[in-house]
Amino acid sequence: MLGNALELKERQGAIECIYHLCNVMGADILPYVVFLIVPVLGRMSDSNNDVRVLSTTTFAQIIKLVPLEAGIPDPVDMPKELLEGRDKERDFIQQMMDPTKIKPFELPVSIKATLRKYQQEGVNWLAFLNKYHLHGILCDDMGLGKTLQTICIVSSDHHIRAEEFAKTGSIESRKLPSLIICPPSLTGHWEQEFDQYAPFLKVLVYAGSPSIRSGLRSQLNKVDVVVTSYDVVRNDLQYVAAHDYNYCVLDED
Predict the structure, then answer these.
(1) All domains of the chain, ordered by start, with CATH?
(2) Tens-digit pLDDT profile for residues 180-207
(3) How buried is residue 45: exposed, middle or buried, by Cβ count under 10 Å (0-12/13-18/19+)?
């Protein structure tokens, strides 16, 4: 329920339930706290303000309990499937606390570039965030390849989603464009970088005068990547926000 992006009531109800459970159970929630970290963390960037606030409050409560969790006995009635999945949750927490333990990510697509070591580490981190449906900030210094690293993870995720949709037909893995929002002076740069490193993705630069943009609106959900500026998004919010997106990348402004 916490991960249901289409139903606000489910997300609200679930996070309220977890919040009250944490308050009522106190230390008795320790055996289960590792299972709450990922879903609660994911809702801290929810589109709804109430869900964000309650998720942040709940996360602040449970993250303090994590160091205590490993040293307590398992409840006798803990379901077998929870016991079997606990190591996966502990693995996430370990990687979150220590990025050097994040597992290498092998690109499933052919990017026309050779990544440097620190760039591969950046892609590994972005893939880690993607795996757990989390957001993050890539803050390398200027000129170190933030655009390239972003293109790597965006193109990889589009490929993975396409494969998943071909297998399952699930609405969760349907084709969605990714949205890149940047200063006007960088829209051409993003288009050029995609064309250079990932030419297999169809990119639309949604920019220009109002008359030009009106002719581009029908393509917003038919391409792989939409590149636009902050000013255009403000002016055309009703058109841009009318579609769902896979990644939303906010370039420095």
Answers:
(1) 8-98 (no CATH), 117-250 (3.40.50.10810)
(2) 999 999 999 999 999 999 999 999 999 9
(3) middle
Tokens linked to 96: 């979150």
Euclidean distance between CA atoms 33 and 68, whole angstroms: 10
> What's the token pair of residue 196?
């250079």
Give the residue, 33 or 142, on which the prediction is more confident. 33
CA distance 247 to 245: 6
Burial class (CB in 10 A: 0-12, 13-18, 19+), 190: buried
Question: Three-state SS for 46?
Answer: coil
Task: List, in order, residues 6 or more apart from 162 with CB less than 8 Å away.
Answer: 173, 175
CA 21 to CA 124: how far, in whole Å?
A: 34
CB 150 within 8 A of CB 161: no
Packing angle, helices 49-62 and 34-42, rounded to 10: 150
Q: 18-37: per-residue pLDDT in tens?
A: 999 999 998 888 888 888 88
